[in-house]
Amino acid sequence: MNEYLSANQSLLAVTDQGKSLDGSLTGSSLARQIAFGVLRHYFELASKVDCLVSKPLPEKNADIQLLIMSGIYSIDHLNRPVHASVNACVEATSDLNKVWAKKLVNGVLRSYLRKKEQIVGQIQADPESVTNHPQWLISRIEAAYPDQALAIFEANNVQPPMTLRVNLKQQSREEYLERLASIDIDACIGKHAPTAIYLSRPVAVDKLPNFDTGAASVQDEASQLVAPMMDIAAGMDVLDACAAPGGKSCHILETFSDINLIALDKDKRRLERVKENVARLQLNCQTVADDLKTFEPPNQLFDRILLDAPCSASGIIRRHPDIKLLRRDTDIAKLAETQLELLAKAWSLLKEEGELIYSTCSILPDENEMVVATFCSENPAAKTLSIDAQWGVGSAHGRYLLPVTGSSDGFFYAKLKKQTP
Ligand SMILES: C[S@@+](CC[C@H](N)C(=O)[O-])C[C@H]1O[C@@H](n2cnc3c(N)ncnc32)[C@H](O)[C@@H]1O
Predict the structure, then answer these.
(1) Tens of pLDDT along 126-147?
(2) Does the CB atom of residue 246 touch ligand 1 within 6 A?
(3) Is residue 1 scored above 80 in pLDDT?
(4) How many domains does the chain have?
(5) Which atom of ligand 1 is found nearest the CA of 308?
(6) Which structural domain range is residue 322 located in?
(7) 278 CB near ligand 1 (under 6 Å)
C-alpha cells in the first residue's frame, strides 16, 4: 500500500476520531515515520498549508489536508527524493477516491518547493507553529519552567532513544553491554539509573540477547528510577496500584527478593501485558484486575505502595506526539481530581510507618506538586520524604525530571511516609 495512504489513515484516526496513534498505526516503517513526523510537526505543517491555499480546506477534506501536510513533512525532513514524495502524495488521492484533488496536492506541494523560505518566514511569529505545541500547553509549560520551556518543546519534538533496563537478577549491566557489542549493537550506559542502557539506534526486541528469557526490557530511564527509591525489605507487602503494562512492577521484582507484590490495574486487557512481562522475566507476583477506588484487599494493608497515576502524559510527548492533539486544557483539572482521589484511596491501604511513592509521566505541576501538596495539607499523618539524588530537580514535595533530547522522559516522583499519630 502507498505509505502516504497508510499514514493518512493513522493520522485521520487521531485527528478525526480522537484515537491514539499507537492503536492506529498501520503499514511500513516509512508510513509510521510519516505519521509520527506529521504529529511531531503538526502545528507548523498546518500553518504552512494555510499559507499555501487560497481558502482553508473544508472538514470533509481533512484527509487531503493531512496528505499535503505529509508531503511537506517529507520535503522538510525525509532523506528521499522530493519528486518521489510528491508523486506518492498525488497518487494517494486516487486511493482516497478524490481524484479531483490530484491537481491541488501537486500544485500546493510544488508551490511549497518554490516558496519554502518565504513560507517559513511567514509562520515565525506564531508560537504554536514555532514550538509545535498547542497554546494551552505552551502557556502551562512556560509558566512552570520559564527558563527550560524552549528546550522542553524541542525535546518533545524529537524521536526518543531506545532505552533498555537490564535485569540485574540475570547479569550485570556491563555483561549485557558486552553481549550487545558482540553482535554489533552500539550502546552506552545511562547517567541516572544503574540498570539503564541507551541504544544508538532502535532495534527489534527479538534481536536483543536473551530478550525472550528476560535478560532486558524496554523502559525509559526516568521510569527506571522509581523501583530503587522504594526502599523495600524482604517479607514486605507491596502494592503497585496502577500497574499495567507492568514496567515498574517487573523492575520492583527484579530489584527486591522475597516480597509479596500485588500488581493491580483496572484495565483487564492491559493487565494481561503485566502477566506476559512477569512470565518473560521469570518473576512472580499476584495480578488483580480491579478499580483502585473500590479495591478491598483481603485483611491486608501494605508496607509499600506505588501509585504511578494516570496522567496527561505531558512528559512523554516525544513518544506519543498525538497527546498534543488529543489532550485539552480542561483535562488537567479532571486528571488532578482523579489523582487526588486515587492517592487518598492508596493511602488508606498503607500501614502506619509505611511509604508510598506517587509518580506520573507528566511535567505539569497541577498533576504533581499540587496534588501532593493538597493531599498533605488534608492529611497531617502524611510526611513527604526528600528524594536525594544526583539527577533531576528537587521541589517542595518531590523531585522531577524534564524531557531531554537523547536522554530520559519527563517524570515526577514524590515519597510519602505515614507517620504514627
Ligand atoms: C501510567 S499507567 C501505569 C504504568 C505502569 N505503572 C508501568 O510502569 O508499566 C496508569 C495505569 O493506571 C491504570 N488505572 C487508571 N485508573 C485506575 C484505577 N482507578 N484503578 C486501577 N488502575 C487504574 C490504567 O489502566 C493504566 O494502566
Answers:
(1) 999 999 999 999 999 999 999 9
(2) yes
(3) no
(4) 3
(5) 6
(6) 223-418
(7) no
